[in-house]
Amino acid sequence: MNSSAKKIGLPPVADFFMQHGVKIAVLIFIIVMGFTESSFLSVSNLSSILSASGTTYLCATAISMVMFTNCLDLSIGGNVYLCAAIGTWLNRQGWNTASLIVAMLLVGTFCGLLNGLISASLKVYPMLNTIATGYVFRGLAFIFTRGALAHMPKSWNNISLVSIAGVPITVFLPIIVVFLLHIFMMNTRTGRHIYAVGDNVKTARERGINVFGIKTLAYTINGLLCGLAAILLSSQVMSVPSSMGVGLENTSMLAAVLGGVSFAGGKGKLFPGVFFGALLYATVSNAMVLLQANAYLYNVIYGCVILAVIVLEVVRSQGRKQLA
């Protein structure tokens, strides 16, 4: 009885649309924009989209790393802001550019490690403790910036001006870093363990996988990527406003789920999956600016997309359980 049920499965077309329906809808939106808005497909606008997608890709990858382990990080925005805030404070103390880069990467990594140790130790859903640490990170950042707009040194802008064959560092560096991380995830034992923990933590323990260490590692990599994102973002805008990073965890999550990362853990690819999701997000954001859409409408659309992905994922998983 069970074997015949398994053979039935979901209709291929229905399963395809359940898995890719949201991405198809976004692509249709982009195609329509290309025909209705002449400036949308211009070289300068496409370059702007690519540049914006770089930082989004880093942050989407950061949240994907912990989502792979069936965890979540809602402190990403606070982490990025704290890294940048400490960078401005150290600049006032006379630190040079190289020292600032190292310091910001270390701050981000430490914040990720802290989240990992707490999440792996406490028997609470990680979303709760990362909300708390997010407030802590943002509060500390306010102390370093004194709650005012902080500025980076003029030499800091040189980072965003670096390019290879005309491609800016804000585009190629995130792609290179995340592609190497993708290879690590797909071709190393540790990478497979990260997926295994997210797929079924009980089975992972029975197989002898160090669940505590794997979760801590995922959060630590998450923090390192936040530090790198803070460097690139602050070099682009040359300042650290108090609003930096606000809502970043939501947009990162949206790009990740658009790229096929599962809220249930154990599924998704950093490349090309999450890259495609980050590019889709950056494209839609750019289109809404061109359309001069109400800024408050952004959150409505982003929330609806995430909700749609969650609903489709639940429907697919329930359908498979009934057929099993």
TrEMBL record:
Q: How does it sit in the membrane?
A: Multi-pass membrane protein
**Which terms are listed as keywords in the entry?**
Cell inner membrane, Cell membrane, Membrane, Transmembrane, Transmembrane helix, Transport
According to the UniProt entry, its GO molecular function terms are:
transmembrane transporter activity
Q: Where are the transmembrane segments?
A: 21-43, 74-91, 97-118, 130-149, 161-184, 217-238, 244-263, 270-290, 296-315
- Give the subcellular location: Cell membrane
Q: Name one GO cellular component term.
A: plasma membrane
Give the main localization category.
Answer: membrane
Tell me which positions the record assigns to the signal sequence: none
User: From which source organism is this entry?
Assistant: Feifania hominis
Write down the superkingdom of origin: Bacteria
Alphabetical list of Pfam families matching this protein = BPD_transp_2
Name under which the protein is recorded = Autoinducer 2 import system permease protein LsrD
Q: Which InterPro entries match?
A: ABC_transp_permease (IPR001851)
